[in-house]
Amino acid sequence: MPNLSPDVDAGRPRGGRLPRRERRAQLLESALEVFVRQGYHAAAMDDIAERAGVSKPVLYQHFPGKLDLYLALLDTSCDAIIENCRQALVSTHDNKQRVGAAIAAFYDYVGSESGAFRLVFESDLTNEPSVRQHVDRVTTECAELIAEVIGDDTGLPLEASHLLAVSLVGMAQVSARFWLSDQGGLDRDQAAALISGLAWRGIRGYPLTDEH
Fold first, then answer.
1. What pTM does this model have?
2. Of the residues 114, 139, 146, 154, which has the fewest C-beta atoms closer than 10 A?
């Protein structure tokens, strides 16, 4: 009988040993599926370990507890939508197209098959301060990016630019979530274009000069 390596012996029947970074990524992917499907409170570390095909001790080697794992996922999800918003704003100097790209970034994120948006916008753990801080970061940082563009284009003071930016972020994420739940409604591009048109008609009313 041939010798078996530690990665394929009877104690590890569900896959070989991965480098630490790859294992962490695999665990996060599995945890995302479980948290999206079950929510934070109903999900168990046993469920996540089983989904990843590892033992619980392996899972705990990477994440000391369920909240640590959830916060790591939130970090990744929040970073993704903020970076998508950033890329939308730098993709063009045409402000009408910027508005459309920013709105589309939220629709693309919410419409993703991963369902990661539920961790950010529909978390069942928002009473936990560390989770609330992560969730609020999306609105705060996206609004800061948009406010800078609004201020440059309109000449409005920082406070006014920031309030308009927060309103745009709220419009984008709330409408995108409603669109996703509205089965049989508009397709993604149609819905994003409709909200982009509404947002542009409002924001263009604050020109820097009459010539704009």
1. 0.81
2. 114
